[in-house]
Here is the input.
Amino acid sequence: MPIAGPLSGVVVIDLTRVLAGPYCTMVLSDLGARVIKIEVPGGGDDSRAYGPFFDGKSGYFAAINRGKESLALNLKSPDDLALLDRLLARGDVVVENFRPGTMERLGLGWDKLHARFPRLIYAAASGFGHSGPYSQRPAYDMVAQAMGGIMSITGEVGRPPVRVGSSIGDLAAGLFTAIGVNAALLHRERTGEAIKIDVAMLDSQVAILENAITRYCATGKAPAPLGARHPSIAPFAAFATADGHIIVAAGTEALFVKLAQTLGRPEWPKDPRFATNAARAEHVEALQTEIEAVLHTGTSAHWLPLLEAAGIPSGPINDVAALFADPQVAARNMVVGIDDPDFGALKVAGNPIKMTGFDDVPQRGPVPKLDGDRARILADLDSGAL
Amino acid sequence: MPIAGPLSGVVVIDLTRVLAGPYCTMVLSDLGARVIKIEVPGGGDDSRAYGPFFDGKSGYFAAINRGKESLALNLKSPDDLALLDRLLARGDVVVENFRPGTMERLGLGWDKLHARFPRLIYAAASGFGHSGPYSQRPAYDMVAQAMGGIMSITGEVGRPPVRVGSSIGDLAAGLFTAIGVNAALLHRERTGEAIKIDVAMLDSQVAILENAITRYCATGKAPAPLGARHPSIAPFAAFATADGHIIVAAGTEALFVKLAQTLGRPEWPKDPRFATNAARAEHVEALQTEIEAVLHTGTSAHWLPLLEAAGIPSGPINDVAALFADPQVAARNMVVGIDDPDFGALKVAGNPIKMTGFDDVPQRGPVPKLDGDRARILADLDSGAL
Here is the structure.
């Protein structure tokens, strides 16, 4: 059963695989939509072969597809296409993340579908979008991160760019597609008209570059990686302690005075190198050295409560183990279980969109077996429940 | 005039400042909503003081707030609160990113507003959310990135974590809030009921950790930074050529076969170390060495067209300057101008949600002057246009 939410009753025909599209439909599922995942017979979604594995089954696939239903269809078989047609006639949204042109070759392009199913919303997530010179190129997360600029501003100073540690190339596209689908559902509800949404991974990376674009426009110089510090505020960075790193973000003069006092160096604000944010930004490396000389004398667990008590924005750099132990993460129900015996040990991210009127359930639906929901889907089509 | 889009006619009363909230309302604005930004008299949004500056005015503020309207209100003044009431009575959504409790202290908490304006949707973006033990703590992007785990998986192998180069702590929260607002608008359209959306920066970071959570559950070991490669798919990384680095992302068995052929090493897929993705992920360093031994024999400009012709996902690592020169970015209208003479040189990110039925305008509205839209807003209230 889908989760109760603002999308309850919405049926998503999900032709997506791997990550950008499935992440979008996972978000829709967490908002209450019924998501019917159409998979290739035989192997299904490519990501069913991606590790890590739990009892031989993909945890990668499970984490993104929990709570969806699976139906295996060969989109080149007339019989299977006829069944897909029945689903599209009942669905509210079709989501796909094929390479542009694939849906047209299958006879399932927007123009044809829109003519036959005028209330069906069509959402496409692709590497480069459904227009432009690179449209036909394949893309994966890493290509989007690299071509879209975020790698060029992520990494250590003076060293090669690094990838954002999660697949932000896919996830950003999935999020923008989810926004588009919701907006299109509203538009259809108000006007009766369905639209096509076309989201590119590359475009989505441009959309999250934030002030790197502004800085480039102001200076004509492409921004470079800055490690773990802010481009213009100091101190606002990660600092080494005796046993790790912590964040200290003292973004105002008053906070810097408090920080100097808390670290037992009340003379810092009178040092001309550190007297103003502009001076501190100019002498950011000397400031880092001075702060770390103090922080090295204690552990992170020593310093963090002192900084918090002084009202200085600060925090630990949590790894996933620390995150799982964090009381705020638990209180917010952000690590949830899966109702699936094959994946007993697997936890997945909860829904960050907390809403009045709908339970934030602590358990997500089971992981679909390939074609495992065929009987129910056919029965629902026959009975009119779908 | 707002852009025409699926949110045309939707009025957003925007109490947000700095980044997470303003990014959310920028997305809503790009979808057609009319966004009325309420600012503190005197200085306005804090980010009006953030560089880089264009002719003395903040490019940081301009990039996120273009196309919104500004009205300065003192939320502690009864007269100004009365004017805010008139706006809330006409608005569809109120968005705020104060520290939790602030709206209640102003008499503007969800319970009171919902009782008085039962159709008003309420969306809050905050550091830690409206519940849980850290709810009252202040947060900045960097604190959310650090506590939320993404820094722990971003950076070079064996070296300290780095920050994601853009403010993904704020932006992810802005995107989830935008999804929630759209879903709430649909829900209200269908049922007449308004809901409150409560999105935390910390929660949003957990939601984009992706398979780092799965890997932790599978192994009990917290994932660490991996530089520029994917944790579980191989080959999927940056590779050195004779004159730089390129991305090669061969995410399926078929693509790996094509890659082996393109690099003149058709025997690779038969090598037991490289025969499956699982094997390649296990032998990822050997695979990197073998691939770079070939790529070192040519420049990036030699290899990229060959890889592209073979249909292998691949690409350069673009900085912002290269991005601005990229024909696909131009063709997709992803770098747009601002209709504001004070910011002639400033370009901003376009809307990555491309939609049929609505023009993707190449120019965004002007940057609001503090309180600059008061006369029009008052006139629209009086005339019933608002």
